[in-house]
Q: What sequence folds into this?
């Protein structure tokens, strides 16, 4: 079941990124100016953001298997519409629908968390996030290869076939859960803000995650600008190969998931953020050399994905009846941070160059680390200390010892 969920997450999240390598071909097909092409990936991302806010919370009030089935139908219809789209406007609407249907990933992640025990939750989350990372990183390469031989429309048709397959498999294999929440839809959406006000750990986790993910996206959004200029002067295709270096994030997610139960989320996040800080230092000092750039990117991806798993584990530990809403709040903050970090990174790069951009990322990470450490100190200070027990009398000691000799069912 975990294998199916992980592969389904990988195959589903890829739908958000298939269209990016296809933009030149789509532009030629519809005879569009370059400025209009950016609306296509934006439509998918906007649909995904809307689904996180408006659809993700439904996982707490209705069986997730049924909700995933509805989303699978929506995704297939949207992909087929993109395949046959006669106009650019219909294609945009289809891409927005693809973003909505891709919310399947945000149903499977809390579903997996709810099916696991606290001891195995880290491993389960690490496995599922491995699929998410692989789907994001490999989707562009797969899309470009298919389009090269069969045209851009064939990518959407192939994706629809894959979506049908996963939809049927998940309908057959996934168990039926029985949600314990019976809120109406308006109150359900409003309760997300109640959860934010009620749980300080949710606020701290969302804030720290947003800060390091903004730094992560600021660098990745400007990396191509850096390596296509002096002293590298790489082509766009060569710049795209740095995405393969980012596969190190898969190892970070996997190792982190296995270590959560041993080290605890707090310590693991501290160590991972120190790795991210080290990455930005390496990129600042050696970022003008290929070896330094590769080492810095590997450390960055290891640290970011290594921190993300324990951060999500502690979010899911807050309230077992609100996994979907907790995940929606967390991922919405992540999504907003990614957009703001990317835009701000490009702006900083244009004004202050590569070293200014790296200092910007380092500053965001340092603030996130400071907030996290403040929270760790506060938790340690608030933790109740066990009071020393009074010495036992001889009779009490004998009676107490008999409890250990008695076999309890």
A:
């Amino acid at each position: 079941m975990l294998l199916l969920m992980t592969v389904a997450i990988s195959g589903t999240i890829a739908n958000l990124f298939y269209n990016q390598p296809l933009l030149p071909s789509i532009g030629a097909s519809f005879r569009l100016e370059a400025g209009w092409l950016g609306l296509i990936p934006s439509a998918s991302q906007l649909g995904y953001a809307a689904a996180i806010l408006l659809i993700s919370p439904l996982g707490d009030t209705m069986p997730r298997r049924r909700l995933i089935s509805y989303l699978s139908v929506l995704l297939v219809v949207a992909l087929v519409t993109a395949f046959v789209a006669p106009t650019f406007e219909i294609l945009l609407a289809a891409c927005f629908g693809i973003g909505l249907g891709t919310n399947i990933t945000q149903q499977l992640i809390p579903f997996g968390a709810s099916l696991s025990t606290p001891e195995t939750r880290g491993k389960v989350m690490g496995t599922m996030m491995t699929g998410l990372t692989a789907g994001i990183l490999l989707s562009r390469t797969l899309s470009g290869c298919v389009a090269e031989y069969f045209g851009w429309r064939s990518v959407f048709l192939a994706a629809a076939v894959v979506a049908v397959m996963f939809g049927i498999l998940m309908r057959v294999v996934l168990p039926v859960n029985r949600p314990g929440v019976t809120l109406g839809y308006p109150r359900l959406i409003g309760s997300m803000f109640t959860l934010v006000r009620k749980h300080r750990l949710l606020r701290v986790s969302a804030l720290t995650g947003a800060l390091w993910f903004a730094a992560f996206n600021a660098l990745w959004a400007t990396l191509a600008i850096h390596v296509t200029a002096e002293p590298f002067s790489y082509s766009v295709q060569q710049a795209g190969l740095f995405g393969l270096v980012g596969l190190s994030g898969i190892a970070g997610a996997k190792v982190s998931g296995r270590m959560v139960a041993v080290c605890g989320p707090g310590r693991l996040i501290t160590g991972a953020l120190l790795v991210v800080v080290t990455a930005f230092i390496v990129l600042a000092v050696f970022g003008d050399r290929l070896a330094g750039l590769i080492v810095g990117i590997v450390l960055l991806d290891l640290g970011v994905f290594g921190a993300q798993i324990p951060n999500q584990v502690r979010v899911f530990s807050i309230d077992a009846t609100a996994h979907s809403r907790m995940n929606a709040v967390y991922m919405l903050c992540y999504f907003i941070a990614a957009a703001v970090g990317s835009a701000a990174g490009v702006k900083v790069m244009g004004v202050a160059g590569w070293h200014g951009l790296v200092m910007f990322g380092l500053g965001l990470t340092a603030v996130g680390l400071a907030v996290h450490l403040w929270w760790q100190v506060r938790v340690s200070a608030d933790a109740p200390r066990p009071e020393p027990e009074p010495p036992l009398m001889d009779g009490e000691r004998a009676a107490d010892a008999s409890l250990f000799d008695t076999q309890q069912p």
User: Anything to note?
Assistant: Confidence is low (pLDDT under 50) at residues 389-409. Residues 194-381 form a domain with the Growth Hormone; Chain: A; fold (CATH 1.20.1250.20). Residues 208 and 368 are 5 Å apart (CA to CA). The longest helix spans residues 323-382.
